[in-house]
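Quick note —
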Amino acid sequence: MAICTIKVSLKKQKIMEVKIMTQKKLDDVQNKVGEFADKVDKKEIEIGGRKFTGLQVILFIASLVGIIACFLPFIDAEASVGGYSGSSSTNYISSHGIISIIFIVAVCALTVLAKQLIALIPAAINFLMVLYDCFFSASIHGGSDFASVDVSLKLGGYLVLLAAIVILVMTVLQFLKDRKN
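Predicted structure written out below.
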């Protein structure tokens, strides 16, 4: 009975040690992210008489890239059946691009108005929508003796996804920075 109690106590102690180590690592990561956000945010740029922080400028650049990427080729599809083949390419504006642009503009406007908590909503929805679209359009290959299909993500798809990630990260960093202050 005593041996069982000691083993249970040692297991509980090891679990507590792991929890403490994990919490320390999370605190270290949070501190490093905070230091990075502070470094970037200290740089201010004045545009048209209004000052913008480094995080805001990165967000605006990523937004511009995201909007432009909506007009670039998003996916390319090639199909062949028998001896006939065809291909087509489309941009993101023809599917969810307009919705994405609305979300991007909303995030920028809310950021300028210093509503970082509310800006997280369109940033997160846009990211999830773009991720979904890119995931299901990334690469589809299929074929048989008679027919084949090939669908692949193009430059616009990669840029839209990258922009959505950066917009979400910058919005989260701004929210955390404002919450800390």
